[in-house]
């Protein structure tokens, strides 16, 4: 009996020692992690005011030795080159699938004078089209956000369905030589990734490569974003600033807190709830940026739409990682995000004033950031191609075929004629349930023929 009691005491003592050792181990590591968070939080507090200024001067004080080229933020010729070399060839992350809940839902964009829209079809396929009627190049969708199964041009009454097919052409149907199937809307490349992020590409040929989504996938995983996220609210406004200044804003925002919102939570919740980790950031394309809001299940997407060399549109959308009624979200938090958006817009406008008034990059205190350098390299590579070809190259140009099968550039999509037309492509997304994570694949036809 005594031996059994001794063994029991030994077992109990051993268990207590193991529990104590485990507790000490967890406490030491949790305390270390907590101290790191406190120090980081204190540092961030010293670096920013309660109402953050997202366009920090530090974004311009970079160690790169290369100065900003003349006209980089103001030149019309530079902007024209950017249209051909960047916006016509690059995958642009512009929105999230949560905006398209039912057939006919659409969003309208204008990026570098490429007007286009995305629309959900009756077949649950998301498609993108140049927002240009094939008759007289009039706008098809006029609202930034809307829903309609029939898209009508108000100029002469031409109508299209959600697949971009011409369904009505008053005074033309009686003309024997007129063929509706040869006057469908021009489609653009569209890609939706596994987490619902939507990319577009205006390139008109078959050389389009898939975008690099490694960083985007990591961001979505850390912020718990998926295709079931829901849109809470969005804001959009135009201002006199060059779009590349917004790119610098995106880079500066990586090191600064988003808003001064401090959610109430217990110590244990802050220690173990992943929502209370530091904010995650990502710049999936040259015109867009993503940020999570620590302590919440919210995240936002900021997109700049270049309109000219010195004017752009800024759009910020607030999302929830889950289907959520926005009335359940703190009004203060929504107002904080809105105020931050307005502060960013004013900062960009002021920076453009400074850029215009400066006479040199030294006075501006601005040198090329890595992202700006990549843009410059892309422009120089395109210029090299144009010099070799002996003419300007418009990668976004769509081409048509005449009755003899000869291809010629159309003035609808690009508004210019190129010397060596690119074969026309029809971009056919697959059903979302099948293509999430894969690129929309086009088929080659003499004319764009959406399914």
UniProtKB/TrEMBL annotation:
InterPro entries listed in its UniProt record: Rieske_2Fe-2S (IPR017941), Rieske_2Fe-2S_sf (IPR036922), Rng_hydr_dOase-A (IPR001663)
Region (Disordered): 392-451
Pfam families, A to Z: Rieske
Bilayer-crossing regions: 6-27
Domain Rieske: 102-189
GO terms, molecular function: 2 iron, 2 sulfur cluster binding; metal ion binding; oxidoreductase activity
CDD domains, per the entry: Rieske_RO_Alpha_N (cd03469)
Keywords: 2Fe-2S, Iron, Iron-sulfur, Membrane, Metal-binding, Oxidoreductase, Transmembrane, Transmembrane helix
Compositional bias segments (type: Polar residues): 435-451
Chain intervals with Low complexity compositional bias: 419-434
KW Flavoprotein (keyword) present: no
Gene3D superfamilies cross-referenced by the UniProt entry: Rieske [2Fe-2S] iron-sulphur domain (2.102.10.10)
Stored PANTHER family: CHOLINE MONOOXYGENASE, CHLOROPLASTIC, CLUSTER-BINDING PROTEIN, PUTATIVE (AFU_ORTHOLOGUE AFUA_6G03920)-RELATED
Stated name of the protein: ISP domain-containing protein
Annotated organism of origin: Venturia nashicola
């Amino acid at each position: 009996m005594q031996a059994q009691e001794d063994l029991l005491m030994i077992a109990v003592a051993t268990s207590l020692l193991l529990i104590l050792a485990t507790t000490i181990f967890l406490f030491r590591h949790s305390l270390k992690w907590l101290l790191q968070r406190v120090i980081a939080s204190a540092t961030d507090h010293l670096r920013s005011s309660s109402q953050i200024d997202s366009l920090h001067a530090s974004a311009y004080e970079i160690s790169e030795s290369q100065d900003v080229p003349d006209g980089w933020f103001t030149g019309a010729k530079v902007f024209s080159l950017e249209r051909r070399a960047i916006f016509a060839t690059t995958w642009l992350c512009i929105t999230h699938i949560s905006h398209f809940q039912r057939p006919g839902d659409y969003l309208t964009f204008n990026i570098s004078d490429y007007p286009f829209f995305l629309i959900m079809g009756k077949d649950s396929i998301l498609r993108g089209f140049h927002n240009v009627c094939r008759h007289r190049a009039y706008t098809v969708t006029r609202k930034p956000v809307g829903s309609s199964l029939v898209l009508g041009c108000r100029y002469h009454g031409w109508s299209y369905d959600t697949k971009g097919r011409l369904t009505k052409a008053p005074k033309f149907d009686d003309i024997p030589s007129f063929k509706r199937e040869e006057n469908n809307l021009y489609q653009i490349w569209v890609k939706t990734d596994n987490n619902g992020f939507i990319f577009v590409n205006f390139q008109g040929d078959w050389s389009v490569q898939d975008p690099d989504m490694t960083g985007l996938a990591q961001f979505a995983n850390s912020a718990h974003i998926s295709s079931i996220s829901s849109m809470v609210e969005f804001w959009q406004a135009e201002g006199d600033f060059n779009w590349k200044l917004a790119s610098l804003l995106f880079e500066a925002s990586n090191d600064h807190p988003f808003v001064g919102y401090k959610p109430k939570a217990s110590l244990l919740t802050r220690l173990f709830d992943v929502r209370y980790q530091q904010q995650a950031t990502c710049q999936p394309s040259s015109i867009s940026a993503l940020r999570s809001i620590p302590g919440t299940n919210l995240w936002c997407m900021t997109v700049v739409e270049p309109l000219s060399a010195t004017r752009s549109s800024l759009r910020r959308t607030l999302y929830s990682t889950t289907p959520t009624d926005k009335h359940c979200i703190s009004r203060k938090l929504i107002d904080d995000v809105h105020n931050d958006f307005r502060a960013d817009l004013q900062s960009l406008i002021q920076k453009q004033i400074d850029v215009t008034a400066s006479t040199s990059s030294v006075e501006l205190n601005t040198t090329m950031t890595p992202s700006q350098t990549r843009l410059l390299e892309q422009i120089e590579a395109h210029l090299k191609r144009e010099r070799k070809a002996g003419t300007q190259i418009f990668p976004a140009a769509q081409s048509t075929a005449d009755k003899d099968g000869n291809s010629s550039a159309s003035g609808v999509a690009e508004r210019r004629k190129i010397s060596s037309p690119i074969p026309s492509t029809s971009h056919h997304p697959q059903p979302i349930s099948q293509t999430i994570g894969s690129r929309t694949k086009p088929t080659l036809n003499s004319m764009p023929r959406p399914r």
